[in-house]
Structures are given as C-alpha cells and as structure tokens.
C-alpha cells in the first residue's frame, strides 16, 4: 500500500481528533469526580458552627511530669510525682499513712541510708506494720 501525502494528513487529523475526544471525556470525568467529592465532604465552618467537633486532642498523661507533690509521713517528707496519689495519701488518717509509709517507703529509705543491700526488708517492715495494725 502506497502512503500518499493526503493519506498521511488524514491519519494525522484523525489521530488529533481522537486525542481531543479522549482529553475532553477525561476532563468531564474529572469534573464529575470533583463534584461527587464536594457533595460528600463537609466544610470546616459547618463542623465548628453546628456540631462543635474539636480539631485536635491532647493527651493529659504527661502534662507536667516534673511537678512534685510533697507528703509528710512519719516525720519524713516523701516527694511524689502523681498528684492523685498525693491527694489520696493526704486524705488518709495518720495511722494508715504510717502503715503505708512503713510498708512501701521505709525499706527503701533505710537501705539507702545504710548503703547496703537488704536481703529481706519485708521481714522488718512486716513486723512494724503488724504492730501498727494491732494498735489501730
């Protein structure tokens, strides 16, 4: 088959027309997709005015991890980093605070002062807590 100049021009014009049609329908599809997306989306103004959804949240676990709460127990000042625990310990009667101090903090305090490793600190603490429990 012999390709003449007129036939080459015809193929070029046909291909150009095909490309224009494809580009036109691709643009129509893009506009249609954009309009469908806009119908599904909700604007920020609507959210803030009607439903009051917050835009962000923040955790309250580590607001101020270096804040210290001192509590006096058995004449010793114990520094806690948990405010709820400090408030709970402060609300207890003096005898119960002594029992908790001796059970949890006394073994650590005495081991730190003696600079020795205690093998069974629970034995001494248990005997003191038993005496205080009997007195209460």
Structure write-up:
There is one protein chain. With 136 residues, the protein is mainly α. The chain folds into two domains: 5-51; 69-135, no CATH class. It has helices spanning 5-40, 44-51, 83-91, 94-114, 121-135; strands at residues 69-73, 76-80. Strand 1 (69-73) and strand 2 (76-80) form a beta hairpin. Helix 4 packs antiparallel against helix 5. It is rod-shaped and about 115 Å long.
Short overview:
By secondary structure, the protein is mainly alpha-helical.
Q: Quick one: biggest sheet? A: 2 strands, antiparallel
Cα-based radius of gyration, to the nearest Å: 39 Å
The backbone outline, from C-alpha atoms, is rod-shaped
Supply the number of structural domains: 2
Number of helices: 5
> Strand order within the widest sheet?
1-2
Low-confidence stretches: 114-120
Structural class by sheet pairing and helices: mainly alpha
């Amino acid at each position: 088959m012999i390709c003449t100049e007129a036939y080459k021009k015809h193929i070029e014009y046909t291909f150009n027309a095909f490309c224009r049609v494809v580009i036109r329908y691709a643009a129509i599809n893009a506009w249609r997709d954009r309009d469908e997306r806009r119908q599904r989306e909700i604007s920020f103004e609507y959210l803030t005015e009607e439903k009051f959804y917050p835009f962000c949240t923040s955790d309250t676990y580590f607001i101020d991890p270096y804040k210290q709460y001192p509590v006096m127990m058995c004449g010793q000042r114990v520094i806690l980093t948990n405010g709820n625990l400090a408030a709970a310990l402060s609300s207890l009667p003096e005898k119960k605070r002594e029992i908790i101090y001796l059970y949890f903090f006394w073994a650590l305090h005495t081991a730190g002062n003696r600079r020795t490793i205690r093998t069974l600190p629970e034995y001494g603490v248990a005997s003191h807590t038993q005496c205080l429990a009997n007195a209460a």
